[in-house]
Amino acid sequence: MFAEFYKLSGLPFLLTPDTRFFYGSSGHSRAISHLVYGLSQQEGFIVITGEVGAGKTTLVEQLWQQLDRKTYVMARIVTTQVTGDDLLRLVMANFGLGEAPGTDKSTLLRRFEHMVRDQRTQGRRCLLVIDEVQNLSVPALEELRMLSNLTVDGKASLQTILLGQPQFRPIMASPDLEQLRQRVLASYHLGPLTESETRQYIEHRLRTVGWNNDPLWEDAAFSGVFRHTGGIPRRINTLCSRVLLLGALEETHTITNEMVDTTADELNRDLGAGLEPARPRAEPGAFNGLGSAADEVLKRIEALEKHATRQDAVFKRMLELLEANVAGRT
């Protein structure tokens, strides 16, 4: 709806990773450098951690676009709440190795070794990507370490990229994973975008779909997006998509900070989107009496009234657009 209103060639803030929209922030560029360095070692593990929605998956998609498909064959595992044996079967399936039900583990390992040897013979290296790695059990992680031990003519047969949330780092520090930890050749934690990068990220995605300053974004609106999202790309996408929808429904060609605040508030009410800005801390010794509590209640009532009025206007506008669309088809 808003893409048509603002004459955009597509939707700029989809949640699905798309390399067309890749924005090389300072953090993302460093992460790519660590990935490239790790791959140059031709063995071991590369670890990338970051908050949910920080862009870890997009990083790997961007890396895969840069790699020579004649040199690499990649398998990717997203479902990670599995046992060690099930993980081995998933790895094999994603490398294109089917198996008969009930096949014993030693046979599976021999088939896997033959596969990587064949790939090496053809000049290709096997790259395994494990997403949401923090969900793997220690036995499953040990299964990955065991696969990294396989060699072909004295060279490592497999490299593995581990993508996970920050809680994976203390897991890696466990004494049970000492041997796997020794095989980590590159590691990087992907942090959020800065405020200036958040603005550049939004503008980059908009320009990718033909944005020509319609709608015009006020400076405060960019700051508002950063304040509500903390610079996490997925949160930025969620918020900006809804802000543009609001703009189209209200038929405005300017995005204001008030629109950003209102939309973030609506997302929190509707979806619990975690876009609540941090509340300022009270000064030491400050007295929060009944008067301030009453003011807060009045503010909440006023916000609810505004929310109800806005929702009513949005619903009416959507019905008008739907009716116009139906009439145009008849």
State the gist of this model:
53% of the residues lie in helices and 12% in strands.
Describe, in plain words, how this protein is organized in 3D.
This protein is an alpha/beta fold and 330 residues long. It folds into 2 domains: 2-18 and 193-279 and 287-329, no CATH class; 26-190, P-loop containing nucleotide triphosphate hydrolases (Rossmann fold, 3-Layer(aba) Sandwich). Helices cover 53% and strands 12% of the residues. It has helices at residues 2-5, 26-40, 56-66, 84-94, 105-121, 138-148, 168-172, 178-181, 195-208, 219-229, 233-249, 257-271, 290-329; strands at residues 45-50, 72-77, 125-130, 151-152, 155-156, 158-164, 184-190, 216-217, 254-255. Strands 2-3-6-1-7 form a 5-stranded parallel β-sheet, sandwiched between helices. A two-stranded antiparallel ribbon has the order 4-5. Helix 4 (84-94) packs parallel to helix 5 (105-121). It is elongated, with a radius of gyration of 25 Å. The protein starts with a helix and ends with a helix. The model is unreliable at 278-291 (pLDDT under 50).
CATH superfamily of the largest domain: P-loop containing nucleotide triphosphate hydrolases
**Secondary-structure element sequence?**
HHEHEHHEHEEEHHEHEHHEHH
Unreliable spans are 278-291
**Derived structural class:** alpha/beta
Q: What fold name stands as the CATH topology of the largest domain?
A: Rossmann fold
- DSSP strand (E) fraction? 5-15%
Counted beta strands: 9
> How large is the radius of gyration?
25 Å
Please tell me the total number of domains.
Answer: 2
Terminal Cα separation, in Å? 20 Å
- Shape, per Cα inertia axes: elongated
Q: Which strand order do you get reading across the main beta sheet?
A: 2-3-6-1-7
- Helicity, in percent? 40-55%
Main sheet?
5 strands, parallel
Count of alpha and pi helical runs = 13
Mean pLDDT: 84
* CATH architecture tag of the largest domain: 3-Layer(aba) Sandwich
